[in-house]
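dumping this here before i forget
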Amino acid sequence: MLDKIPYMQELEALNLPRDEYCFFGAAPLIMKGIKDFTRDLDILVTDKLWQKLKLEYPVSIFENDGQSGEYIVLGNIEFVQCLLYFSTEECEDIIRRADVIEGYRFMNLTDMITWRERLGREKDFEAINLINEYLTKKSKVK
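structure:
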């Protein structure tokens, strides 16, 4: 399944501790078969890992709807310490609750829905619909 996720070699080359981050954005949807592509990898990291990355790589600032945050871009991978509209503690919990698939953490679908609801963009509601369709199909199979 991991072969469906692009840029894994770039991520692996960084040799980051796998329990200190999780994939969010499209990667969890790809791993569940809900989506089939992504242009980049979005990685949510713990505060501990963020502090290490900040010392080694340039940090950029993003703004969205009056909210701002920091991110680091390394090639095709974007790292954030916290998601918009979430506290640092909530983000740490998201990483801890993430689904572990083939040794990597992927944001679970419940957290994905909450995150996308908070963002509230058209593409987020489209993703929520796809996730709900997936969950409905999955519950009928059981």
